[in-house]
Write a structure and sequence with these properties.
eight-stranded antiparallel sheet; 13 helices; mainly beta; 1032 residues; five-stranded antiparallel sheet
């Protein structure tokens, strides 16, 4: 019997091991296809990353039908040595071409493809680095049509010698020929860390160049128009990647340049072929910091072109804690003061929200939603491709990853700063860098966002993958991939499971094409991702059965397409139509009027006293209200609040109240029947009871304020309602936090109104049940004719307090920031909008795996220390790194002398009994929600992603629904500025909560929305006030 059992077990195991493997979307076929290319670096004491910081950046790959046989071929760049061309013979059979385009420079980088003379045969541009021990210049190889090439860069006048990265050929002025943007990087020269004003100083080797083709499509003549066209050409530019698209839909191609390090990325908007307008500051609130690869496409299917940029934030817990992260808040702000935009070391998914009218043109505006999509951390990432790889109609994401050694490793940086590397050989220095082999990442696009699917798609190769290109190598309508790896064989991936698409093949020509006459223009560009050039054949499933192509010879022709097929199109084979006009399809949002006053924040930040805050406890203002025929706008400490007449725009500054930090205001009816304005003050830079924190009342706009009580409050909000049922309005003041003791429960303040028009301070017992309050309002929740007090808590709940002092929790724990009550579905009962921090922060959490905050005195020095924990890869870890822990308690320095002894240690193992008896604060949902009443109580409905992109600070009911605005600059730099949110409308009905675009585009930190007879006033923290006068 035992023997039979052993046999049965053996057979069962055999059955398990022999089960067929589930097929992946892609299969790697390079060896079978005859691709044996490898980009192998020769690294030694004479050439290495110590001498050249971009030594490990790899090289590009290009795809085109170079021999005109109908199948697309592959050209690989080798950093050191001969490049290689593989001709596609069909049926996944590639043969090596001749070496006439092998490249002669000592160190090569990027490759681009263009049909420079409009003969239908694609030509090649190869970029080169002239630096250190390497000689060479950018080279251009003209396709002779017989499988060979001739190098003619000097004849064209584009044989530039410098820090070559990539070239972009595109038709800047819509004249049918190809113009040229030459992208170059810098190498940390002494002047590279100057103020941003140094962008105007030209550098001969590092600066970018722009050449206008003043010849014809058949006979190019390049003229250097760099300065004339407004292209920056300084050593501040660390250009690593480039892409061209018509971002504002005006019919002209614009250019986006990805810059490394502290320099901004550049968005050049095309001024109708007559120059470029640098629009980075207006179009983006944030950039990736170490921006590497870039691609452009319509991520969400709304018809607008979006951008995706890569950085180096790891997803793996060990590497995340070992990598150099975001800068401290004060350094970050200093760089902003020097003329640089907000930059954070993570990927950015810039969703376009439309355009605003500015500078005489349409300026596109973007929201960064990479953390919301779960794609902000792909590790050391080089190339990105946005394509519908599986053919389901949604854009997917593919990212190449890995570096030979990690120069951003914190232990390596500590080794350098200690002076140990002085007078040592280069090899002994770079050998201290840990290896950085990383798996490539793939994400499948869905109606709800992105899903990581690298292994399932067969794209999880672990190594150092750099250049990447997409093409349909067997003309089956499915997109394949080719990858140029460093120190490894190149990979060729065949797509075997996707749904076939309708594709068009333009025969090697550079063209403009449209869905129909008068429709938006598209171009068959291929320069994208990282140092590479993808196929210029295009998927046109959404075009229906036809297409209009505008050929370089000046004709426009209409073609009928076969759905789901490969459609080769050639000049002269279509029906000639009129289609060459430039069509402007810009979607410009309604304008907001900028008022001649606003709010200016002071220099203080709560991160100075408490560095480990997720969100700062200051920068909460300004207060705002319409009272006595004027608008009141509060000020920060040391600045004067003001009264503004919105008809004449005259303002009166209240210098007597400049000591206060005004955060909220509310109208109140006094016991005498008079209306007054209550203004409350809050700041984490002084004790709660400081006289500078005194709240106050204005009886008239032309009279001084009167202090409310002898002591102040660290207020965040004020609500007015009858709390004790005596018929008089009372005041509730919610406190944000306890000074220098974040996490402790504040006391809050209640003032009961009296018949003589003043107040008596009270301290009802129910205030002890409330935590750190961020907002409060009053509304009748149960329809009994009496208002309840509704409050929002940080690290707590939305709560209501009725007239009997009963406190009821209405939501789950959150990082709540605002609360607003309205009957959104018009059924006679109200809903509660609960504004949260949002879900665009990159901290993984859920109700089952919440983020936790433990506050205790770790080292017995009398100060409370902050310990955050979160779950990553199935284990709970410290949220912040070793250096942050040491700042909380220096005793841990000796326990973790190196980062690699700290990283990857679970939270419980790290702290053990030190947290015994401590109850953590816990949050499993940080977004915004709608609370809806039901027979069993209040139900929390989490809102769509459009309302989760940033903190929601303000809401107001309109005819179209609830207008939501927000944003926040006072977030920990590991999260980054949350000021790219453009606003949204929220409606609620039988389909649940729905969001739609606001009529205007608003960014920054909107603190208050104030309805006035003159329109809606939008008060922003540290910015001008805005006015919207149209109907909502």
């Amino acid at each position: 019997m035992l023997k039979k059992a052993h046999i049965a077990l053996f057979l069962a195991l055999c059955a398990c091991t022999s089960a067929p493997k589930e097929p992946t979307l892609f299969e790697e076929v390079s060896e079978a296809a005859g691709i044996d290319f490898a980009n192998v670096l020769e690294e030694n004491d004479q050439q290495n990353i110590v001498d050249y910081l971009y030594f490990y950046n790899g090289a590009g790959v290009a795809v085109a039908d170079f021999d005109g046989n109908g199948f697309e071929d592959i050209y690989f760049v080798r950093n050191q040595g001969a490049n290689a061309l593989y001709f596609n013979q069909g049926n996944w059979n590639f043969t090596k071409g001749d070496l006439s385009a092998a490249g002669s420079a000592d160190f090569q980088t990027g490759v681009s493809v263009v049909d420079i003379n409009a003969d239908g045969f694609p030509d090649l541009h190869v970029s080169a680095v002239n630096y250190h021990i390497w000689n060479g210049h950018n080279e251009f190889y003209l396709n002779q049509g017989d499988g060979t090439f001739t190098e003619i860069s000097k004849d064209l006048g584009i044989d530039l010698a410098g820090y070559g990265q990539q070239a972009l050929f595109f038709d800047c002025d819509n004249d049918g020929d190809q113009d040229l943007y030459v992208l170059r990087h810098s190498v940390h020269p002494s002047g590279a860390y100057n103020k941003a004003t140094q962008r105007g100083t030209t550098d001969e080797k590092a600066g970018d160049r722009f050449f206008l083709n003043t010849g014809s499509p058949e006979a190019p003549v390049f003229e250097d128009k760099t300065e004339e066209f407004g292209v920056l050409s300084s050593q501040l530019g660390y250009g690593l990647a480039i892409v061209a698209e018509d971002f504002n839909s005006d019919g002209y191609l614009d250019v986006f340049v990805a810059n490394d390090f502290h320099e901004n990325d550049y968005l050049y908007l095309n001024r109708a072929g007559e120059g470029f307008e640098l629009a980075t500051d207006e179009s983006f609130q944030t950039n990736s910091k170490f921006t590497m690869g870039v691609d452009a496409g319509d991520l969400n299917g709304d018809g607008l072109t979006d951008l995706f940029t890569l950085d180096m934030k790891p997803w793996d817990e060990v590497e995340r804690k070992n990598a150099l992260g975001a800068e401290p808040f004060h350094i970050h702000k200093y760089k902003r003061s020097q003329g640089y935009v907000e930059q954070f070391p993570k990927n950015s998914a810039h969703l376009q929200r439309g355009s605003v009218a500015s500078k005489g043109m349409a300026l596109p505006v973007f929201e960064d939603v990479a953390p919301l999509l779960g794609v902000e951390s792909t590790d050391w990432s080089w190339g990105v491709l946005l394509e519908d790889f599986d053919g389901d109609g949604y854009k997917d994401l593919y990212v190449t990853n890995g570096i030979k050694r990690r120069p951003n490793d914190l232990d390596y940086i500590q080794f350098l700063s200690s002076g140990e590397g002085v007078a040592k050989s280069d090899e002994s220095i770079y050998s201290q860098m840990p290896p950085g082999l990383v798996s490539n990442r793939a994400y499948r696009g869905t109606s709800k966002g992105m899903v990581e699917t690298s292994a399932k798609w067969g794209l999880d190769f672990k190594g150092t993958s750099n250049g990447s290109a997409v093409a349909d190598f067997d003309n089956d309508g499915k997109l394949d991939l080719v990858i140029n790896n460093l120190d490894d064989r190149a990979h060729l991936y065949r797509n075997i499971l996707a749904t076939a698409a309708t594709t068009v093949d333009f025969g090697g020509y550079n063209v403009r094409y449209r869905k129909r006459l008068g429709a938006k223009s598209h171009w068959n560009l291929g320069t994208r991702s990282w140092l590479s050039h993808s196929s210029t054949r295009k998927n046109v499933d959404d075009f229906g059965g036809g297409i209009i192509v505008e050929w370089p010879n000046g004709t426009a022709e209409a073609y009928t397409l076969l759905p789901g097929e490969h459609n080769p199109l050639r000049p002269g084979e279509g029906m000639i139509v009129d289609g060459l006009e430039t069509v402007n399809k810009s979607r410009v949002a309604a304008a907001l009027d900028t008022l001649p006053f606003g709010h200016k924040e002071d220099a203080y930040t709560s991160f100075v006293e408490t560095p480990l805050l997720i969100q700062g406890t200051d920068e909460l203002g300004p207060a705002g209200a319409y009272f006595d025929g004027k608008l009141f706008v509060g000020a920060s400490t040391g600045k004067a609040p003001l009264w503004a007449d919105l008809q004449t725009m005259d303002t009166t500054l209240l210098w007597g109240d400049r000591a206060h930090e005004d955060v909220d205001a509310a109208l109140i009816t006094l016991g005498t029947g008079q209306t007054a304005l209550v203004v409350v003050t809050g700041s984490s830079q002084m004790p709660n009871n400081s006289t500078r924190q005194q709240d106050r009342i204005y009886f008239h706009s032309d009279k001084p304020s009167v202090s409310l009580g002898e002591e102040g409050t660290n207020a965040s909000c004020v609500a007015v309602l009858d709390l004790n049922g005596d018929g008089n309005d009372d005041i509730f003041i919610g406190e944000r936090s306890v000074w220098n003791d974040y996490g402790a429960a504040p006391s809050h303040a209640v003032y009961y109104g009296t018949n003589d028009g003043w107040f008596e301070k009270g301290q009802p017992s129910w205030t002890a049940e409330l935590g750190m309050i961020t907002d409060a309002t009053a509304a009748d929740l149960d329809g009994d004719g009496t208002d309840e007090l509704i409050i929002a808590e940080d690290w707590g709940k939305i709560k209501s307090i009725d007239g009997n002092g009963r406190v009821q929790s209405l939501s789950e724990n959150g990082w709540w920031r605002s609360v607003y009550v309205a009957d959104l579905d018009h059924d006679g009962t109200v809903e509660i909008f609960a504004g949260g921090v949002g879900q665009n922060h990159g901290i993984s959490l859920s109700p089952e795996e919440p983020v936790e905050l433990w506050i205790t005195d770790l080292d017995g020095n009398g100060n409370r220390d902050f310990l955050y924990s979160y779950v990553n890869q199935g284990e709970r870890y410290p949220l912040f790194g070793r250096d942050e822990l040491i700042k909380e308690s220096v005793k841990y320095r000796k326990d973790y002398l190196k980062n690699r002894t700290f990283s990857g240690v679970p939270f419980k193992k790290m702290f053990g009994d030190a947290l015994a008896g401590v109850e953590p604060l816990s949050v499993g949902f940080t977004g915004s929600a709608l609370l809806v009443s039901s027979d069993s109580g209040w139900v929390q409905l989490n809102l769509p992603s459009a309302a989760q992109q940033a903190p929601i600070n303000a809401a107001i009911a309109t005819e179209r629904g609830l207008l939501l605005c927000g944003g926040a600059d006072n977030m920990h730099t590991s999260i980054g500025t949350q000021e790219s949110f453009c606003g949204t409308f929220l409606t609620y009905g039988s389909s649940g909560p729905l969001c739609s675009d606001a009529p205007f585009i608003l960014r920054g930190s909107t603190a208050k929305l104030v309805s006035t007879p003159h329109g809606l006033v939008l008060l922003q923290n540290d910015d001008a006030a805005l006015l919207y006068t149209d109907d909502l």
